Structure formats: C-alpha cells, structure tokens
Amino acid sequence: MRVVYPGSFDPPTNGHLDIILRSSKLVDKLVVAVLKNPSKKSMFSVDERVDMLKELTKDIHNVSVTSFSGLLVDFCREIECKTVIRGLRAVTDFEYEFQIALTNKTMDEEIETLFMPTNTQNLWLSSSVVKEIAIFGGSYDKMVPDIVKQKLEKKVYEGGFKDARIH
Ligand code: PNS
Fold first, then answer.
1. To test ligand 1's pocket by mutation, which of 35, 43, 79 has the most ligand atoms within 8 angstroms of CB?
2. Is 127 noted as a catalytic residue in this protein?
C-alpha cells in the first residue's frame, strides 16, 4: 500500500518523525508531502522543510519526501495514491482532522484517511509550540531532532521568526 503523509512540517518535530517511522513499517511506500501554502506565513521555506525531512528519513528505504500545492486529493490522484495518514494527538485534533478527512472524502470518495495516535511523549507537541519556545529562548531539545534544532537556532538568530505565524 502507498500512503501519503501530508502536512506543513514547519518545522518537522519528533512527533512527525515518530509517525513517519511507525507508519513506514506498515506500508510499502510512504510519501511525506509538504504543503506549499503561499497564504500561510511560515518560518521555513518549503525547500528547507523538504530538505530537513529528506535528511531525517534518509535511512528509511520506503520513504520519499516531496511538496505539493493545491488540493490534497488532486495530489493523491497525480501520484496514484488513495490513502492518507495523519497523526492524532489529543482529542482537540479530532474536529480539525475529521474536517480534513471528510472534506477529502466528499471530493473524492476513493481517498481513505487513516489516523495514527501519537506516542505519549508527543501528546502536546506541535511545530507552533516548538517555534514559540525557540523564539523565547527556552529548551526544546526533546521536541525536535538535532538537525531541526540547529536550523531553528540559526533561524531565530537571523531573525527568521519575524515572518512566522505562531498559533
Ligand atoms: O500540518 P497541517 O498544517 O495540519 O496540515 C494540513 C494539511 C496540509 C494536511 C491540509 O491543510 C491540506 O491537505 N491542505 C491542502 C489543501 C486541501 O486539500 N484542502 C481541502 C481539505 S481541508
């Protein structure tokens, strides 16, 4: 089975990596797909996010990383993939995730969405929280892989956070 794991990944966290590692063991091919969303301000460019994810997954043989724009269902059709996976953290994710899944299903009934519960360490972890901690100089060592931490520190040092929307 070929599966797409879409997201903003701004930046990738240990929570994302956990979903990638666990789901890649269940599928033949996992396509990690970074959304190009010009209307959403981000800290990292799409290319930077793709590069980080490629580096993080370079040793997982069945994972590839790419970007997409427009509708997820169109991207799925383009790469001939009918299954989407999303991580679920707390109950607060449900409404948002159900909206995405059901909207996609309404647009293309062949697309199925699978949800994978996060592990307990990452229950409250999000890219937004990590960015906020980084900007205010807190410690986020346990929240992101080392290479992401280095890139975040550089971004904050260079003032790259000014363009990022933290919410
Ligand atoms: O990491 P995120 O920001 O929660 O990921 C959201 C994402 C990228 C999965 C979702 O916004 C998406 O698929 N966007 C593409 C546009 C689309 O297909 N919209 C209709 C369904 S909401």
1. 35
2. yes
